Amino acid sequence: MKTMKFIALLLFSGSVLFQASSCKKGTDTDKEMLDMAKNTAGFVWYKFSDQLLPKSNFSGHNEAFLRTRYNTVAATMLDSTGKVKEGIIFPEGSFIVKELWNDASTLSTYAILWKQYSNEDADASGWVWGYIRPDGEVRESSKKKGEACIGCHSLSGNIDLTAMNVAFP
Ligand code: HEC
Q1: What are 147-163's pLDDT values in tens digits?
Q2: 163 neighbors 58 (Cβ within 8 angstroms)
Q3: The pLDDT of residue 26
Q4: Cβ(129) – ligand 1 distance below 6 Å
Q5: I need a surface site. Which of 41, 55, 145, 147 has the fewest CB within 10 A?
Q6: Most ligand 1 atoms within 8 A of CB, residue of 71, 84, 98 to mutate
């Protein structure tokens, strides 16, 4: 009888623990951003071109090539040449993906900016910063709120902390 009670208790506490961990807030932000980055439908490319660009002198990344795309919300902030309009603040829901490529056939990493003021991982400007490989490996957790990114992204000429216009005028 004692064993039965013990087992019942074990099962009960196990299910409580399971429920608690499955509704933990925020832990899925990286995964959510990866899924959003992988679904390329509706994105608009910087300067309307999907050509890979050789990395700029400003970039802190090792990968040789990159290209950047904007979801439909973020794309409302592009001008008629596909560059980011000067002086704008990206609206809630903006999602920007910089694809980093080692060579023309090897996608290495998605660098992501997601404007979501209410997200617990958002920085003071409402950006959530993602740095994730296509296989799901997280290179920099969104939990860190862009700690490794913001300093460089505050470069002179940045537009709401974005840097494409500076690096590729
Ligand atoms: C040493 C400087 C530097 C660091 C550090 C850096 N970036 Fe960038 N980032 C750039 C530059 C410059 C660009 C413009 C494109 C290019 O040249 O790579 C850029 C572009 C981007 C873009 C495309 C949108 C835009 O116009 O800015 C995203 C998204 C991005 N970075 C995310 C990140 C994330 C996430 C991190 C941190 C994990 C990070 N970056 C760290 C310099 C940096």
Answers
A1: 999 999 999 999 999 99
A2: yes
A3: 41
A4: yes
A5: 41
A6: 98
**Scanning the structure block, which residue is given the tokens 């862009």?**
146
How many Å apart are CA 91 and CA 17, to the nearest integer?
A: 38
In 3D space, the residue among 92, 113, 107 whose CA is nearest the CA of residue 29 turns out to be 113
Q: 143 CB under 6 A from ligand 1?
A: no
Q: Provide the token pair at 94.
A: 């903006």
pLDDT bracket for residue 5 (50, 70, 90): low
For residue 162, which atom of ligand 1 is closest to its CA? 27
**CB contact at 8 A, 51 and 96:** no
160 lines ligand 1 (CB under 6 A): no
Q: Residue 18 Cα, ligand 1 centroid: separation in angstroms?
A: 37
Note whether 161 and 153 are within 8 A (CB).
yes
Q: In sequence order, what are the residues at sequence separation of 6 or more whose Cβ sits closer than 8 angstroms to the Cβ of residue 88?
A: 77, 159, 160
Query: Ligand 1: does its nearest atom lie under 6 Å from the Cβ of 10?
Result: no
Is residue 6 within 8 Å of residue 124, measured between CB atoms? no
Asked if residues 21 and 14 have their Cβ atoms less than 8 Å apart, the reply is: no
